[in-house]
Amino acid sequence: MVYPPAKPGGKGTVAVAGVTFQVRRGEIFGFLGPNGAGKTTTISILTTLLVATSGRATIEGVDVQADPEGVRRRLGLVFQRSTADEELTGRENMLIEAGFYGLSRGEIGNHVSDLLEQMDLSSAADKFVKSYSGGMRRRLELAVGMVHRPRLVFLDEPTLGLDPQGRAGFWRYIRSLRETKGLTVFMTTHYLDEADQLCDRIAVIDHGRIVASGTPSELKDGVGGDTLVVSTAAGAGDLTPLLRSLPGVTSVASNGATYRVKCSNGESLVPKTVIAAERAGIDIVGVTVLKPTLDEVFLHLTGHAYREEGDAPSTSPSHATDPGIVSRGK
Amino acid sequence: MAVPAFSLIYREYLRWIRAPTWVISGLMSPILYLLLFGQAFDLGRLIPPGTPANVLSNALSGAPNYFSYFAVGMVAFASVTAAMFSGAGIIFDKQLGILQRILSTPISRRAVFLSELTFRGMLTLIPAFLVVGFALLLAHVPGVAGLTVSSTVSVLGAAQFLAAAIVLSVAFTALFLSFGFAVQRVESYFGVVTILQLPILLTSNAMYPVSIMPAWLQYLVGFNPISLAVNVMRMSLFGTHGYAYPAGIYLLGLLAWAGLFVTLALVLASRALRSDVSPKGSALSQAIAE
Ligand SMILES: Nc1ncnc2c1ncn2[C@@H]1O[C@H](COP(=O)(O)OP(=O)(O)OP(=O)(O)O)[C@@H](O)[C@H]1O
Ligand SMILES: [Mg+2]
Question: What is the ipTM of this complex?
């Protein structure tokens, strides 16, 4: 996707290039990446709000360029920015949105009340949106995006600015819809713990390219497993050769009395380290196992200060048999 | 089943009914013109005593007095003034991302445009008819001039009056909607509107008789859509004496203007509502960029 130049004669912005992925039906798919990576642009293309300059995407087998209306009918969309009408009440916003899908108040009225309840907006439902707090607006945005009971939703930073209860409540709702209705979710978020807990699979995008994809645990394994932090008493001997000789250890870095040991299985290494050190007569003061987090994965893949030589970005298209979203982008 | 376009109209209606600023903004100028200008600027008083009565009546194309002649012009003026606000809402919808949300739903782009034209067009008729009522009322207030209808108004005449009012409002609503679709900033919109407002009004026969104008201006005035509508309206209230063409011809001319403006608005609206990023950038891609 190339955005045209702001000024005539200027250079256009290549926002997304070479984004290829598949999302299976009923899957929660996380699309992570730093600011400006191309997440919103990708969503805009998949939801027909932008026509890509090249490439192809299908949603439930429907081509987004050939049949944009068919695609629009199938999906729900929660924008990154707020789009509710301030002059109307929360309920009115939802009923009007439902009307755009041809649903009348009679058909959808109860569902609207349910959704407002789910989003903890019942008491504010008939107040004007201009009187809502930031988090209430966000929750309304979520409710509006889901009002026509889509089977597939695009959530662009859905929980931005929500308090922990709000986030937990929303994800509980999304999970239950996934379980009961087979909802497919394509989401972006900068809360990586959220992505870790929720997403079945994740793709990491940077500079408009997918740099890694897989399940959260695959991605975490990709950064080299656990880290064992071993502290020795002051004046104790050097543990490095001994640590290197233990099974599963991939690297050891030390800074005086503290050692950072990269290994595949941290817990099983703890007793081995303690016994080996005792035999060698080196006093250990503490051992901590650090599990990798998605934050580490993210920084590793996209934090340019952290990028090491030879870390070629890898793309691993999945082998889905029942594709919900297929994108072969440029 | 609900019709998606009704949902759009319902939204506009709710917004409008809660903030009826149009009462002030749309009616202020026409009412002031009726109460002050129309009362002060009585052309009839300039005519020396002893002049044959038909001199004035001919200049005013059959209207019984200047105020009645002028009041009909103000009916058209009121609807055109109201139409000038038609396009502003779209600009706000673009800026606030509301238009984008609407466009992510299956509602057709054409329905977005047509529901906007229908609703805004109907709104511009309200001040027009309030002006008619107000001017008629003034005729019963002692000491002030009011609108007096001189010929008996037939059903056909009333229908012509209504048709002229509707086509005029469609034409100008479409024109100003097209600016709303085309520009990105409210300032630019009202800039264009301010530039156009007086030339559109002053090159029409809404305020003064055509026969006293210089020939070049008469020529311009003849083509002005306001003049065409006002001709039809005056013919239905004061009779057809002194007009070069029958009312149907003026109505056709007005329809041609409406066709032109609606086409322009359709082109600009579909450009603003489409999803591809043209070299100039559609309104949509600019909205996403924000
Ligand atoms: N309408 C536009 N015109 C020109 N460039 C654009 C436009 N929209 C986005 N871009 C550029 O495209 C790139 C990707 O932007 P995008 O909004 O997709 O990022 P994002 O991943 O959603 O970021 P964030 O996490 O900040 O929301 C950025 O470099 C941005 O400046
Ligand atoms: Mg974004």
Answer: 0.85
For residue B288, what pLDDT is reported?
Answer: 61
Q: What digits encode the pLDDT tens for the residues A9-44?
A: 667 778 788 788 888 899 999 999 999 899 999 999
Please tell me if the CB atom of residue A154 comes closer than 6 angstroms to any atom of ligand 1: no
Give SS3 for A57.
strand
The finding on whether A145 has its CB within 6 A of some atom of ligand 1 is no
- Same domain for A316 and A211, yes or no, is yes
Residue A189 beta carbon below 6 angstroms from any ligand 1 atom: no
CA of B94 to the centre of ligand 2 (A): 18
DSSP-derived pairing of the beta strands A152-156 and A323-329? unpaired
Question: Using 50, 70 and 90 to split pLDDT, how confident is the model at B282?
Answer: low
d(CA A248, CA A290): 15
Sign of the dihedral defined by the CA atoms of residues A196, A199, A200, A204, in that order: negative
Smallest Cα–Cα separation from B171: which of B191, B137, B200? B200
Q: Do B101 and A98 touch (CB under 8 A)?
A: no
Of A68-82, B143-157, B250-264, the range with the lowest mean pLDDT is B143-157
For residue B122, what is the enclosing H or E element? helix B109-138
| A246 part of a folded domain | yes
Please name the amino acid found at residue A258: T
Residue-level pLDDT at B290? 53
pTM of the full structure: 0.83
Q: What ligand has the least distance to the C-alpha of A206?
A: 1
- What pLDDT digit, counting tens, does each position of B221-270 carry? 999 999 999 999 999 999 888 888 999 999 999 999 999 999 999 999 98
Write the CATH number for A241. 3.30.70.100
What domain range is A240 assigned to? 225-291
* d(CA B34, nearest CA chain A) in Å: 34
Site to probe by mutation for ligand 1, drawn from A11, A13, A32, A50 as the one with most ligand atoms within 8 Å of Cβ, is A13
Helix, strand, or coil here: A82? coil
Assess whether A319 and A260 both reside in one domain: no
Is residue A63 domain-shared with residue A154, that is, in the same domain?
yes
Tokens at B185, concatenated = 């900033």
Across A183-200, average pLDDT: 92
**Whether residue A171 sits in one domain with residue A212:** yes
Q: Residue B4 and residue A100: Cβ atoms within 8 Å?
A: yes
Question: Of B86, B238, B67, B56, nearest to B174 (Cα)?
Answer: B86
Residue A134 lies in a domain: no
Q: Can you read off the two tokens belonging to residue B59?
A: 């200049």
